[in-house]
Amino acid sequence: MSKKVAVVTGGNKGIGFAIVKELCKAKFPGDIILTARNEKLGKEAVELLKSEGFKAIFQHLDICDQGSAVKLRDFLQNIYGGLDVLVNNAGIAFKNDATEPFGEQAEVTMRTNFWGTLWVSHALLPILRPNARVVNISSFVSKRALDQCSPQLQAKFRDPKLSEEELCGLMGEFVTAAQKGSHQAEGWPNTAYGTTKIGVTVMSMIQARELTKTRAGDGILLNACCPGWVRTDMAGDTAPKSPEEGAQTPTYLALLPVGAKEPHGHLVWDKVVREW
Prior knowledge:
The chain is an alpha/beta fold. It has helices spanning 14-25, 39-51, 66-80, 102-124, 140-147, 151-157, 164-180, 192-214, 243-246, 248-254; strands spanning 4-8, 30-36, 57-60, 83-88, 128-137, 221-226, 267-269, 272-274. β4 (83-88), α4 and β5 (128-137) form a beta-alpha-beta unit. The longest helix has 23 residues, at 102-124. The N and C termini lie far apart (39 Å).
């Protein structure tokens, strides 16, 4: 039996780094792979963990590069024969005072938060081993953004039969509308980040349904979660939670015990399933 392995994307700082550290503290029974887009920052993060008595292994991953995700998949397949824990943490947000046009913010944020997460999922979900755990970092902002959508869009995003292809189409429609400046008139909220996280939450629900259908009996659990408002480069230093506090729910979901049936296919924050 190959050694177990956990992968955390965007692990060089903030919540991702804190999740890696929490997995180390919990004595995850295998190797913990810290991935980052920037090799220098990723290796520095691994050294920092080492200085604190924790061990992680760096692997390069740029989630916006599909080839990069395939390389990571091949590495995991060759060395470990599969994957046991995947935490899709990497993501971006423009600051409130960003000067880039809203259409540009929508396109760039969508490319990373939604498409990047989807591409990593397409590469790595097929190599999940039985009893694997997948955690897609979303946000409570996804629920708030959903509530600001038109009733028609809300119904689509809550439809249990919505396909991945249809979801991708909706995310594309938002970016196109944002670039035209007609997104609010078309029923979308005025938040690029929030809309991308609607995508991540609904993507997670679709992925969980698919796993239940195609891997029934394998005990795999997949959820979206909100770490909370955390003091990071992204959220700023006035946020109420520390990165360590933000890492609690993702780590809890990543380490759900063998035999657990729930949660699966939900949005979770503060370790509680939230209504979508």
